Every structure is written in structure tokens, then in C-alpha cells.
């Protein structure tokens, strides 16, 4: 028969074992949670980097598209009334059905140039409440992945590699910007890229000078760029 002293010792050992087991459980759960948090942070960083690369791709695509703009040869001499008129290739809504099919959206007229109080194009929303710089807005798409054939807009059907292809807007700021060889065309290109999630979004912007035509093609030059908040 066990004495009272032996029973007391066994109770102390059992209590110590339970305490150690509880501590081990807490540590295990804490390490598991830390690993999950690190994986989530790493995944978010990867997604943000993907969105940045796609936004950069769209920014470069928008800049490279400048020499092919409609009515490019006339922009520098177009009167202000015509530039802000119904036949202008650039509009405050960034949509112009009179333009050739590749350019019926994505070309924006600066509010300052039009003499009107309008938000910047990348901050505007259309009548349906969608941002202009959105896959279902007025921006130009850089096609990098297959597009879903059904019900793409107004609800975006995520692509197989990322949430949506990057898009960009081209805004005419000054058709007679001073340049070394005469008057150039000053544009602002705003591009947006998304990662695998809709919330992983990066917006880049550049100011680009399309210089006077010296040969068969007008050279363009990036003056500055920035990351928008």
C-alpha cells in the first residue's frame, strides 16, 4: 500500500508532466501560426511583385504605342476648340467611338487642357461606377493571358495566371510642349497591374515626350515615372 508521501510525489510528477505538455502544445501552436503568417506574408509579397511587373509591362506598352496614335500629325496644330470637340481623338471620358477600333478607348484629354474641372483619368469612374483604369473600364488592355469568353464584365472572370491583364490610359497633357527641335507632344501614361488577387494592385505613371518628327517615325522619351499610392 502506497504511503501518503508516495502519493504526493506521484501527484507532483503528474502535475509537472501536464504543465510540460501544455507548454509544448502552446509552443507548437505558436510555431505553426508563425509559419503560416510567414507563408502568407511571402505570398503577398510575391503577388505584389507580380502586380508591379505587370504594371511595368503595361506602362512600357502604352509608351511604345504613342507613335501610332490616331491623328498624330495634326495634334500639334489642332485648335483648342477642335481638340476639345466631338471629333477629337482624346476625350474627357477616355472613350471615342469615332477613332479606329484599336483606339476607341484609353485616350484621355487632360482636364486642364480642356479647361474643365474633371478628376484625373485614373481617379475617374464611369456612369456605371467603375474606375476608368479597370479591366471593365475605359483603359486599353495588354493581352497577356486568355480572356474568358463568358460574363467578363462588369464582373471580372479571373485569368489562369493572374486576376486580370494589365491596362493603361494615355492622357494628352500638352500638344505644343517645348522641345529642342520644336514643339513636342507631352503625354501622361498611367498603367495598372494586378496579381493573383484583385487586392494586389500596383499603379505606375510616366510623363513622356513625343518629339517633333525628324524622320519617318517620331521618337519618344520618358521624362519621369512614379509609383502611385
Structural summary, described in words:
The structure is a single chain. Helices cover 32% and strands 22% of the residues. The chain has 229 residues and is α+β, with helices and mostly antiparallel strands. It has one domain (44-228). Strands 1, 2, 3, 4, 5 and 6 form a six-stranded mixed sheet that branches.
As residue ranges, the low-confidence spans are none
How many structural domains in the coordinates? 1
Helical/strand content category: alpha+beta
Mean pLDDT: 86
Biggest sheet, open or closed, and with what strands and sense? 6 strands, mixed
**Total count of strands:** 6
Helix content: 25-40%
Number of helices: 4
CA(first)-CA(last) distance: 77 Å
Radius of gyration: 29 Å
The shape, in one word, is: elongated
Oligomer state equals single chain
Measured by DSSP, the beta-strand proportion falls in 15-25%
H/E element string?
Answer: HHHEHEEEEE
Amino acid at each position: 500500500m502506497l504511503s501518503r508521501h508516495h502519493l504526493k510525489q506521484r501527484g507532483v510528477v503528474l502535475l509537472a508532466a501536464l504543465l510540460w505538455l501544455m507548454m509544448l502544445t502552446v509552443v507548437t501552436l505558436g510555431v505553426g501560426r508563425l509559419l503560416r503568417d510567414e507563408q502568407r506574408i511571402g505570398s503577398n509579397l510575391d503577388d505584389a511583385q507580380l502586380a508591379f511587373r505587370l504594371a511595368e509591362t503595361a506602362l512600357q506598352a502604352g509608351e511604345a504605342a504613342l507613335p501610332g496614335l490616331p491623328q498624330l500629325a495634326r495634334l500639334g496644330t489642332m485648335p483648342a476648340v477642335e481638340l476639345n470637340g466631338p471629333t477629337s481623338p482624346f476625350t474627357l471620358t477616355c472613350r471615342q467611338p469615332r477613332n479606329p477600333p484599336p483606339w476607341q478607348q484609353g485616350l484621355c484629354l487632360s482636364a486642364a487642357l480642356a479647361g474643365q474641372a474633371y478628376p484625373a483619368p485614373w481617379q475617374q469612374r464611369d456612369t456605371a461606377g467603375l474606375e476608368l483604369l479597370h479591366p471593365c473600364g475605359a483603359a486599353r488592355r495588354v493581352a497577356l493571358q486568355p480572356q474568358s469568353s463568358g460574363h467578363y464584365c462588369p464582373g471580372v472572370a479571373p485569368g489562369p495566371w493572374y486576376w486580370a491583364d494589365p491596362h493603361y490610359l494615355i492622357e494628352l497633357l500638352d500638344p505644343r510642349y517645348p522641345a529642342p527641335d520644336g514643339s513636342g507632344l507631352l503625354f501622361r501614361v498611367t498603367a495598372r497591374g494586378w496579381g493573383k488577387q484583385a487586392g494586389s494592385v500596383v499603379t505606375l505613371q510616366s510623363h513622356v515626350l513625343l518629339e517633333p518628327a525628324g524622320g519617318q517615325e517620331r521618337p519618344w522619351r520618358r521624362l519621369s515615372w512614379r509609383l502611385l499610392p
